[in-house]
Amino acid sequence: MKVTFYGTRGSTPVPEKDYVQFGGNTSCIMLTTDSGHNLILDAGTGIRNLDSDLIKNSLDQPLSFPDLDIPALDIIIILSHTHWDHIQGFPFFNPAYDPQKNILIFICGKDRVCSDLESVFAAQMQSDFFPVPLDKMGSKIKFWQPDMSQYTGPLGNTTKFLKHNHPGGAYSYRFTEGGKTFIYCTDIEHGDEIDPSVVELSKDADLLIHDAQYTPDELKQKKGWGHSSWEQAVQVAEQAGVKRLALFHHDPEHDDSFLLNIEKECRKRFPNAFFAREGSAVEF
Fold this sequence. Notes:
Elements: E1 2-7, E2 28-32, E3 38-41, H1 51-56, E4 75-78, E5 102-106, H2 117-123, E6 140-144, E7 150-152, E8 158-164, E9 170-177, E10 180-185, H3 196-201, E11 207-211, H4 216-221, H5 230-240, E12 245-248, H6 256-269, E13 273-275, E14 281-283
């Protein structure tokens, strides 16, 4: 497996000179499986930079999902939730304008984040906000919201889903293929105690990406905002016995110098921790 970071920032993009090292684009990563298939996780502003890599790593054969009425899929986008910083890049995603592309966008879980996923994407592209409506983009886009806790798909992997605490709801994902496991857990507020379900989902993972928007002191002032501290991310990694921890969803007020200092503090406690950097990749 390979994970590439295209957007690591939370809440809002920060295109400023002091944010270059860790990046200013909002949440978007790509998971490349051992079989060479790509899964896009979240569609923040970082998704705009995915185009060239998708072309270089295009599928030899499109994917077929037996559950859907689309026989072949070129691009799969999996959402943690539908807050703006996780979907705002989609109107600028060039493959969505290609009539030859079939795109799947979905959220999986027993409890659905929204009643109609398609309406969320259509709303942000209404004429008041954007010149091109969703149904005129060109590609064939399918929205899927199945009621399930795990799915074994055509990628040769098993994906498990967990709804966690965040305003409006959000999901964590566990991907397993060929004995390797990757966890994506962003926009989560644990509360006074670490959520044991998140620890269980993350058990023995090779890589855990975890929300770390706040410092422990900031978290005390931001209760109810739906995020974690770097200390809580480390606690999850320790309790779950993960091999590597990527701290993610950086606060827009935290510049490169700030994050470098906090990264040093994290590594004193969990040496295999690092703050996710836009443009970097991890193979495992």
